[in-house]
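Narrative summary of target 7.
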Amino acid sequence: MRQTIDAAAFQQMVIHAAAAISAEKQQVNDLNVFPVPDGDTGTNMSLTIAAAATEMKKKSFPTVGQAAQATASALLRGARGNSGVILSLLFRGFAKAIKDRETVDGRDLAIALDFGVAAAYKAVMKPAEGTILTVSRMAAARAAGAAREDDAFEAVLTAAIDEGQAALADTVEQNPVLKKAGVVDAGGKGFLIILQGMLDQLQGKPMPESGEETAPVEEKADFGAMSAQEITFAFDTVFIVRKPSPHVNLEPFRTYLNGIGDSLVIGEDDEAFKVHVHTNIPGAALTEAQKYGTLELAKIENMRTQAEDLAAGKHVQSTDDLEAVEEELESQEEAAQEPVHADPEKQYGYVAVCAGGGLEAVFRDLGVDGIISGGQTMNPSTEDILREIDRTPAHVVYVLPNNKNIIMAAEQCVRLCQDKTVVVLPTKTVPQGIAAMLAVDPEAEREELTQLMTEAAQRVRTAEITYAARDSDFDGFAIKEGDYLALLEHQLFGTDRDLGDLLERLAKSEALQSAEFISIFYGEDVTEAQAQQAADQFTAACPNAEVNLLPGGQPVYYYMISAE
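Modeled conformation, tokenized:
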């Protein structure tokens, strides 16, 4: 039974935990059913702790307290979605409790878990039972009792996980939405996978395959000591794509590639972008790339055969200039990640989150300085938001998250930004963000401007049309895969197999019948003719409202509808 852990052990535990949640992220995603069955909790938690694992691979730390502090910092900056932010808060409190510790025993662990729970609960405005908060609280409470019985680190962590599993099983009874869907809480499940991954490392269990190194790599791998079959992603793939215009948004493509491989590097200029990725399906990567431009060059190498040649002492077959291309890509990526700081030139600046060229153009026209690509299923991290704030040349920077799952990540920037005042307006939808920008008065004092923008956002009612990714059941609605779904203020308004019928019902709803202004933003999967037909429906059904149709270009949602 392991009595204590040191910094090296903690680092390996974090790396193992990241591999564990990465291997099971889809299982966690599948539990996240509210309000639409298109969950991304597993993805968000995996990406969040992956940031910490990357930090743990870079260098060694002299004390476990310093390693925990570095972990918490990386988690905070890499936090994605509410689940990622809460995970970062749990580790932030954990790190605070052991900041002066060279090693940690079971008693220290119990105190640290309790500090983490306190930090998470303090940050959540309305804590709900049957969530990751419940699971973490019950696990910490059991850890405290276990530490009084046996203060060995391994014993206390085991007890905490056991209690957490019991608490997780009970979440289906505590949360009405989970009970309706018949699933446990996704965030709680992800948290326990992470804790179990840490325990597995401590007990010497093998790490789940992730295609990543499990320790800092300073020299080339000893290929003679490993099997080629241990290489998770076989094909080293490099290609160049010519852009149709300088402003191609590559974030969806980056997300796609991260889903089918690892070791991803993307470098770009105004004319082209170059990709390096390890994957088992290079053809799929090349096919997807052609959605973003014209494929000009591709180089593919089988790393398994290369490993076999290296192990046998043979010459490794390679494309002549692959190394030069990789060096160029890596240098471009490093340059792209260098922080860009803009000194204040004006009093107020604005940063908005949205997805879609049309929506981006609207925000630019309204005076937004920085756009962060993101939204439903594409939650930017705190670091992504902070980087855009730093680039904004203003003393006070307003952030419009425009999605309820991004608000917490944005709020972390208030504390992290040192030389600018950050104001996060809790806009939950893109139409709310647009309304807030329309209310901007550059001559107003900050308190008055904040009130003006907040009140404008609150006057907007938002409807959204999307689709069901899988069969589900919610609030009396039997949802089938492929159904069109109408959401009104994030609540399920109705479903239908016919999009026109669903739009007609929505247009005749009380919320839209009382509106004076209706703006319809149509998505990337809707043609202009289809969008005009929808606008005609709303014009006929809402004779007292001025109806405007605009191209949004947003993914996921066929239509975003703003009513005032």
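Confidence is low (pLDDT under 50) at residues 34-38, 211-229, 318-322.
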